[in-house]
Amino acid sequence: MLEIRCTGTPYEIGFTHGKLAKKQIAGSIDFYAELFAKSCSMSWTEVVQEALSYSEILKQFAARYLEEINGIADGACIPFLDILALNIRSEIVFGLFSDKRSGVTDTPSDGCTSLGWLAGSKAFLSQNWDWKVEQGPNLIICYISQPGTEFPDIAMVTEAGIIGKIGLNSNGIGCCLNAIRCRGLDRSRWPIHFALRAVLESKCREDAVEMVKSFGVAGGGHILIGDATGFVGLECTSTWVKELPMGEDGRVCHTNHILLDNSGIDEPLWLNDSPSRLARVRELAAQIPEPTLDRIFEIFKDTEGYPASINRKQGAGSEAQTLFTIIMDLSSKNAQVTTGRPTEFREQFILRF
Predict the structure, then answer these.
(1) pLDDT tens-digit profile of 39-93?
(2) How far is residue 226's CA from residue 252's CA, in Å, rounded to a whole number?
(3) Of 9, 200, 240, 301, which is the most buried if we count CB atoms within 10 A?
């Protein structure tokens, strides 16, 4: 997995990202162009036109992120709207899924299993990321530093060209993401990857939670936010953000469906295995008397329900595969990233400040 380090203003950060990850960014565009064409009968030209409809709206409350996206575009020698389309690919899917006129009744999305666990002085935040294997080569580890600002340094795993995803910052704030598919889209709220970036730029967990609740999220998703003192899940739809509190066992577990009251939300079951994976991760965690990085990693190796298991395999009955697993020790401000399925992984990386 490519590691890049970006320092400076938003444009400078983006330009470095684009220049160093040019090949992977082109790969991300090729991947999503093919995915939209197959799944939504939508050409990349049409995808870019969708992105254009977001551009003016985002200028009103996300100008700094658009500046970074512009830098990525310049560094990679790729048009701005192509990079913007990558960063709002989830919202484009939600828009198609929610608009009955589009004729799109089923849309693919990345899935995952996540676990936040506070035990004594240790706070572990972890998840795997399940998506189509073709996108695996386009994952990168990105370190971001913005000297002279109030923003902490960031270390995250992301798809090349996307400004915010899964990781932690130098203040010990971490975030994970679970895709949730429900109807509804509000373009005046944060695109999910913008929201993740904003969480990673937060000074503390309370600020991160308040920020997401205040701005809202354009479509569905679950953002699990943690620090050395605990965790809170934020279940997001286009109309509300609700807190999923840490249980008495010190844990927050999530997969790919809404756990809180979803009255008034149209949420067709997307992954039939989501409830069973949730039950399984809770069961496995309950069997561990004291969590460690290695013990949590064993949870993510589990194959009950294979191939649509926690440790997922792309094939019959499963459209996605585990592409990486991240386990963050927020008490120590470091993380272990394992690429590939955890039972047959290729590489391991340590993120630290």
Answers:
(1) 878 899 999 998 998 999 999 999 999 999 999 999 999 999 999 999 999 988 7
(2) 10
(3) 200
